[in-house]
Design goal:
Largest sheet: 9 strands, mixed
Strand content: 5-15%
CATH superfamily of the largest domain: NAD(P)-binding Rossmann-like Domain
Helix content: 40-55%
Strand order of the largest sheet: 9-8-7-10-11-12-17-21-20
Structural class: alpha/beta
CATH topology of the largest domain: Rossmann fold
Number of domains: 3
Number of strands: 21
CATH architecture of the largest domain: 3-Layer(aba) Sandwich
Length: 642
């Protein structure tokens, strides 16, 4: 009942507004008639004009009122008046003039075109159009004036891009007084726009002048409004924005704009990939199809961030069958559901299997007979594995051994093990377990002449538990951003890049190699936290605190991509390198793994750690106890950290 009353009240309110607009328009029709009559009488060219004022007024006013009602001009919003509203007014006034002129010719004077009445009709139509336009734009003009009067108290923004996207955002901001945002300038690289004004806002320079312009106009935020910018252009713009030290937001790309229109409400925080300080790799879909089409493909860890994306790219390459393995029921369910909905033509088989169970893994291979295997199942959180080192060995080493050995038994043509930069000179049990997994695959490939290989990369931007996702979640909660150490650096790559590296390894690998992707320079985590704060629309420390929490046990200040003895070799892909198999490590990983498995079966975890220390004395000697740091330097003291 209450909702019906509210709906009825709203309907009555709308009708009252329409009635008021119609009354105002009728008043302007009479005012226009009076002004036009006075003007033509003062000219003196028509001493006997008009022959019948009442008759002319009746015809013209009736035609004008009917046209305004017919074109529905009373229903158009005053607050959001624009070009289309002007066109509607022009059409209504134009048609009313034609109708009135036609009636005059038929009913009054066939020589109408040369009569005083025709001159009156032209003047009256012109005056009426301007009066109606003034009425239509009255609210918007008042809003803009009010907005400018209180502009000192609003957020002053500098818009990057004076094209259609920037102009649309500027217009909306000028119209929307509730936004609390005042556009005060543009920057754009187009020489033809320099010095011009768009929506009354000046173009003050090029993108390279961004920091100078922002300081000059005292901008408090930057809006990047170039939806057509590619990744290289966007990275250059964001590098210039970051030097300003003020919050930054951007419009979605053209592909993200569903209806082709832009609005300041569409402004978003920067994507995770936008913070990568390098050109992102271009993916070759043909490579995946040549490798996978009509093959039976198995992916372990199919419910994880990498595994699920890998499954999507494999499914897009049209395999004969895709087998998804994961021990997490929930993750496997959603990964399988997503693949099935997006690629209904692909036959998929979810298998709830723990790779640490060799018999369970063998059952899947016996039933499905995969030809290509991607091994993404792993425990990856350093801190968690420091608390449970036996689980790191069980899952990351023994699980890899089980899948690789079963793949060899069933004649799998390509096997790719997914590793991490933490396997290089490891300082954590997670890193050591991945290093042992790499060596297991390498030894198996060399001894049995198999096309088995490893891929090694750094942090995957946006994956579950990555520092970028953690920062995003902390920003959503209002902070603080928790940084381990102001000196810490990490390598980053996007999820699509990581999956592409895996597919490249499968296509190019001959057996025993470790593939490494050129990820550019490592990124300082503290500077990354500041960048993500700015790109999310916050001033670091002032609006979003940054807190140093110290390195956790097993973590390193800097990660590495290769061991000192490993020699990087180029491949057919300019951004992809390999480390050829070498007998640098003389131990027998098969025997060691079997021994660790027997210790795990006895649940003698202390003996397991002793055995690891004995097998890897460099790892044991290199582990550094990380103690709690009582005091860290302030943000100002570390602001210069590169």
């Amino acid at each position: 009942m209450q909702s019906r009353l509210q709906a009825g009240s709203m309907s009555v309110h709308i009708r009252l507004n329409w009635a008021a607009v119609i009354a105002a328009q009728f008043t302007l029709i009479m005012l226009s008639f009076a002004l036009s009559s006075r003007f033509l009488a003062s000219v003196g060219s028509f001493p006997e004009w008009p022959a019948s004022v009442k008759y002319v007024f009746g015809v013209v006013a009736t035609a004008q009122a009917a046209a305004l009602l017919l074109f529905g001009t009373y229903r158009r919003s005053f607050r959001y008046a624009g070009i289309r509203d002007l066109l509607a007014l022009a059409k209504s006034v134009g048609w009313s003039g034609l109708v009135a002129g036609g009636l005059q010719m038929i009913l009054h004077d066939l020589r109408f075109m040369g009569s005083p009445d025709f001159a009156f009709l032209l003047v009256d139509s012109t005056v009426l159009f301007f009066l109606l336009a003034a009425l239509q734009f009255s609210v918007r003009v008042a809003d803009v004036g009010k907005h400018r009067r209180r502009g000192q108290a609003t957020k002053r923004v500098l818009i990057v891009g004076a094209g259609d996207g920037g102009a649309s955002v500027a217009r909306e901001l000028l119209m929307d007084t509730r936004a609390g945002i005042t556009p005060v300038g543009f920057v754009d690289d187009d020489p033809a726009k320099q010095g011009n004004q768009i929506c009354g806002i000046p173009v003050l320079g090029e993108i390279k002048d961004l920091a100078r312009v922002a300081g000059k106009i005292k901008a408090s935020e930057i809006l990047v409004c170039i939806p057509s910018a590619d990744s290289a252009q966007m990275r250059r713009i964001l590098m210039a924005c970051r030097k300003c030290g003020i919050p930054i937001r951007t419009l979605p790309s053209v592909s993200e704009l569903l209806n082709g229109q832009v609005s300041w409400k569409d402004l978003r925080a920067i994507h995770v990939e936008d913070v990568l300080q390098r050109e992102t790799i271009q993916l070759d879909k043909g490579l995946a199809e040549a490798l996978i089409q009509d093959k039976v493909v198995l992916v372990t860890g199919a419910g994880g961030s990498i595994g699920s994306e890998l499954c999507r790219q494999v499914a897009a390459a049209r395999p004969r069958k895709l087998i998804l393995i994961d021990k997490s029921e929930n993750s496997l369910f959603y990964s399988h559901l997503g693949i099935s909905e997006k690629f209904p033509e692909v036959t998929t088989q979810p298998c709830l299997v723990d790779v640490t169970s060799a018999p369970s893994v063998r059952d899947v291979f016996l039933r499905e007979r995969p030809q290509i295997v991607f091994h993404a199942a792993a425990f990856k959180h350093v801190g968690m594995m420091e608390l449970h080192p036996h689980e790191a060995i069980r899952n990351n080493l023994i699980g890899t051994r089980n899948v690789a050995a079963t793949s060899a038994e069933f004649g799998v043509s390509h096997f790719v093990n997914i590793s991490t930069d933490k396997a290089v000179n490891p300082s954590s049990y997670m890193g050591l377990s991945k290093q042992m997994a790499e060596r297991t695959v390498r030894e198996m490939a060399v001894r049995r002449r198999l096309r088995f290989m490893n891929v090694r990369f750094g942090n995957v931007a946006g994956s579950t538990g990555s520092v970028l996702r953690l920062f995003s979640e902390q920003i959503a909660k209002g902070g603080p951003l928790r940084v381990t150490d102001p000196r810490a650096t990490r390598y980053f790559m996007s999820i699509p890049e990581a999956v592409y590296l895996i597919l490249c390894a499968a296509a190019l690998g001959q057996g025993g190699e470790t593939f490494i992707f050129d990820m550019g320079e490592p990124i300082n985590i503290y500077q990354l936290a500041r960048t993500m704060s700015l790109f999310s629309g916050f001033v670091p420390e002032e609006e979003l605190p940054i807190q140093f929490i110290g390195l956790r046990e097993g973590e390193k200040i800097h990660e590495e991509l290769r061991e000192d003895w490993e020699e990087m070799q180029p491949t057919a892909h300019p951004r992809l390198f390999t480390v050829a198999p070498q007998a640098h490590f003389r131990g027998d990983m098969g025997r060691m793994t079997q021994q660790m498995e027997q210790i795990l079966e006895r649940r003698d975890y202390a003996s397991l750690l002793e055995y690891i220390d004995a097998c890897f004395p460099k790892f044991a000697a290199g582990r550094i106890a990380v103690h709690e740091v009582e005091e860290y330097p302030t943000l100002k003291q570390v602001a210069g950290v590169a």
